[in-house]
Amino acid sequence: MIEMIDISKEYKNGHKALKNINIYIEKGEFVFIVGASGAGKSTFIKLLLKEENPTAGKILLDDRDITYLRQREIPYLRRNIGVVFQDFRLLPNKTVYENIAFAMEIIEEHPKNISKQVPMILSMVGLSERANNYPDQLSGGEQQRVALARAIVNKPKFLICDEPTGNLDPKTAQGIMDVLYKINYSGTTIIMATHAKEIVNEAKKRVVILSNGEIVSDQQKGVYDHEN
Ligand code: ADP
Ligand code: ADP
Questions:
Q1: ABC transporter domain location, by residue (predicted)?
Q2: Which of 89, 153, 168, 212 could lock onto 173 through a cystine, CB 3.0 to 4.6 A?
């Protein structure tokens, strides 16, 4: 689980990006974080990834306090949390296979596990045929599938997605959502920040609406039908 208790974030310029956030995310949930530009979605995600520290409050990951992790404790977090961004962020000089294998190499997985796991993951995201292509030979949707494969290859408990469909046309975006639902079904907790109302409203999952740094709505099978 992930829990935020009375979390606030004030940037150095005095801007309060998050105000008194309380949220509990159960293992296996799929949660959309929505809200207008500037609402605090990216800040919320940066706190979970430890790219920013909160000004006040507490963050728990599986009952472990991760509010102020030391530098040497951050690998613990990185193993438990996979991440996907709007702009894919693949390594341009590595093939699809190598991009995914690399994520296993940096945690020093046994080569045997790598050569077993990478083809399995490629097949799960529907990219077996593309293993030896480079990112610039792929469509946007295919690149995002590679990014998803890389994010989950080490079997993290949590997958965090920041506008994962933001650069994709609606049909391709739906394909990415189908992969995300499959990943979630296999037990991975997913937290997805997005502007994509159609996707959110079709999904009938939990929807947390941020507005001016506050949670103004948090509903199971929620909808997001107006700008907040
Ligand atoms: P969203 O992802 O919903 O667009 P953000 O979390 O990026 O929202 O931003 C929330 C608010 O905090 C915005 O008003 C933004 O301008 C401000 N903000 C974000 N990052 C910084 C920063 N590094 N320094 C100062 N203000 C920031
Ligand atoms: P996105 O909308 O794609 O989430 P943002 O525009 O919120 O991205 O932020 C892009 C980068 O600029 C982030 O690293 C954020 O921390 C920083 N940033 C955003 N708003 C401000 C701000 N008002 N002052 C300083 N840095 C900011």
A1: 2-228
A2: 168
CA–CA dist 152, 29 (Å, integer): 16
* Atom 17, ligand 1: residue with shortest CA distance: 17
Ligand 1 contact, 35 CB (< 6 A): yes
Phi/psi at 199 (5° precision): -60, -45
pTM: 0.89
Determine how many CB atoms are found less than 10 A away from the CB of residue 228: 14
Pairing of strands 206-211, 30-34: parallel
**Residue having the nearest C-alpha atom to atom 18 of ligand 1:** 17
Per the prediction, the chain carries an average pLDDT of 95
Sign of the Cα torsion 204, 163, 46, 158 reads positive
- The tokens describing 113, both together, are 């596990």
CB 201 within 8 A of CB 225: yes
ipTM for the predicted complex comes to 0.74
